[in-house]
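Researcher: We plan to redesign the surface later, but first we want a full-length starting point. C-alpha cells attached.
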C-alpha cells in the first residue's frame, strides 16, 4: 500500500504554528508565575510604588501563622471530600446508565447539564437551596429535627461548599467513567455471566479493574479542581466564613492579596499552593500509577 508523506520546505513553519500557543503560555502562565515568585521575596506597598527585598520572611511567617495552618488542613479535608464524593457518584451514575439500552442517552444528557453551569452559578444555586430563611433544604432538615444555618455553623458551611463543588464535578467524572465502561470488552462480561457471576461481581472483578487508568486520570483532575477551580463556589456561597471556617488556600490567597493588599504574603501563598499541587501530582504519578493496569 502506497503512503504519501507530507513535507514542508520551510523550517520556520513548525515554529510559526506553535507560536500562538507558546505566546499564550508565556503571557498567561510563565510570566505571572515568575512575577509571583519574585513578589514572594519582597515587601511591596499597596500602591506598588516601592519594594523591599525580605528574603524568606513571608514564608516563615506563613508557617508560624495558625490561620494559614488551619486553611491548609481545611483544604485537605475539602479536597478529599469533594474528590471522593464526586468520583463515587460519577461512577455510580455511569454504571447505572451503562445498563440502560433505550433511555441511556436521555439520562446522559441530563447528567451532563450541571457541567455547563458556571462555578459561581452553581454556588449561588446551592446557596439559595440551603438559605436558612427561604431555602428548601433547611425546611426539610428542620422536619427531620436538624437546624441548618451555615451562616453561623462552620461545619455546615463546609458541608455546603463540599456538596456544591462535588455537584459541579460529578458530570465530568460521569462522562469519563461512562466512556470507560462502554469500552470494556463485552466478551469478558458475557464469559463471566456464563460462569455464573452476577452484575455486582462482574462490575467489581472486571469493569472496575479495567477502569483504573480512567480513575487515575480523574483523581488527578479532581485534586487540581479542588485546589484552584472551586474559588468561585466558595466566594458565592460562604465568602470564606463563618469565622474563616471555609477559607481554603486558594481563597486565602484572594483574601490576603486582593482584599488585604498584603501582596508579598499572597504571592508566597500562591507559590506554596503551586508547589503543593506539583508535589501531589508527582506522588500520584510516582506511586499511585504503579497500581494502574493498562
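Model: Full-length starting sequence:
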Amino acid at each position: 500500500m502506497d503512503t504519501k508523506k507530507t513535507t514542508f520546505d520551510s523550517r520556520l513553519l513548525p515554529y510559526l504554528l506553535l507560536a500562538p500557543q507558546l505566546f499564550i503560555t508565556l503571557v498567561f502562565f510563565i510570566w505571572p508565575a515568575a512575577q509571583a515568585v519574585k513578589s514572594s521575596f519582597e515587601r511591596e506597598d499597596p500602591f506598588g510604588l516601592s519594594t523591599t527585598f525580605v528574603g524568606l520572611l513571608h514564608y516563615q511567617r506563613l508557617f508560624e501563622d495558625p490561620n494559614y495552618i488551619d486553611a491548609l488542613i481545611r483544604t485537605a479535608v475539602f479536597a478529599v471530600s469533594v474528590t471522593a464524593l464526586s468520583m463515587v457518584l460519577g461512577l455510580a451514575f455511569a454504571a447505572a446508565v451503562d445498563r440502560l439500552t433505550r433511555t441511556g442517552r436521555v439520562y446522559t444528557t441530563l447528567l451532563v447539564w450541571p457541567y455547563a453551569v458556571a462555578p459561581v452559578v452553581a454556588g449561588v444555586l446551592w446557596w439559595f437551596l440551603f438559605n436558612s430563611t427561604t431555602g428548601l433544604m433547611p425546611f426539610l432538615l428542620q422536619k427531620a429535627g436538624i437546624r441548618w444555618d451555615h451562616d453561623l455553623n462552620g461545619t455546615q458551611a463546609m458541608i455546603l461548599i463540599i456538596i456544591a463543588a462535588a455537584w459541579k464535578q460529578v458530570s465530568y467524572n460521569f462522562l469519563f467513567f461512562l466512556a470507560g465502561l462502554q469500552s470494556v470488552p463485552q466478551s469478558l462480561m458475557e464469559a463471566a455471566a456464563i460462569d455464573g457471576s452476577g452484575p455486582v461481581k462482574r462490575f467489581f472483578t472486571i469493569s472496575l479493574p479495567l477502569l483504573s487508568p480512567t480513575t487515575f486520570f480523574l483523581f488527578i483532575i479532581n485534586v487540581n479542581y479542588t485546589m484552584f477551580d472551586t474559588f468561585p463556589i466558595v466566594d458565592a456561597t460562604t465568602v470564606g466564613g463563618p469565622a474563616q471556617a471555609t477559607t481554603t488556600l486558594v481563597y486565602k490567597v484572594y483574601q490576603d492579596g486582593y482584599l488585604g493588599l498584603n501582596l508579598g504574603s499572597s504571592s508566597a501563598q500562591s507559590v506554596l499552593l503551586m508547589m503543593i499541587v506539583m508535589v501531589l501530582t508527582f506522588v500520584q504519578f510516582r506511586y499511585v500509577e504503579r497500581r494502574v493496569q493498562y
